[in-house]
Amino acid sequence: MIENHEIDFRILGEEMQCVEIELDPQETAIGESGSFMMMDREIQMETIFGDGTQQTGGFLGKLMSAGKRVLTGESLFMTAFTNAGNGKKKVTFAAPYPGKIIPMDLYRHNGKIICQKDAFLCAAKGVSVGIEFQRKLGTGLFGGEGFIMQKLEGDGMAFVHAGGHVIERELQAGEMIKIDTGCIVAFTQTVDYDIQFVGGIKNTIFGGEGLFFATLQGPGKVWIQSLPISRLASRIIAYGGIGGRRREEGSILGGLGNLLDGDGV
To answer: Which domain holds residue 85?
Structure first.
């Protein structure tokens, strides 16, 4: 069994954040593909199959580890950054879009956190990144973004990324909140997660919020994001309009407004 490497870190920035990880000699951090930003000269970079927890096992173990990552929409490979020098060295990982980086000490959360499938950014070596299937039929059929989720297991530090502002809620036993499935970032393993139908003809046809929402019931901790990447992407597409032309939301000038601000028609 690979022990989790203990790492020091600091989070830099406001809206476009990055996390700087300080590694002692021979310590290793693992990063999601495409998250690397910069590193000191003595740090060695190695592409690994899966999440780094099965590297001492056989090919089948590595293949299963990598296959779990594919099911959550991630790459087959991750990158390991090891300090091959004598002193402390730093490696930095950047957030993929505006939002916040959330540090999570898995030891303090009983060794497991469940998060959205695209939330993981980087972690100490030894943290396992797998899949968490929801057991309930309704959740599986209608969960949307929340159906197949990631689980982070181990006793080290892991870092996840969320869009917009992040709210942390500590739910008491029996306390429940209803939430858009895309706004869930992560929750502890003691939280009960399910899907409910919005209900009502007007809500269904004209509500614009989807047919289902998630229910999270305590006890446990929940992390919530104000701007899911899917919502951001849909707004950008809608604003561009057909053929890339602007849609003037709320403008009484319409095409004339485009002429006045120099965009043409």
So the answer is: 8-241
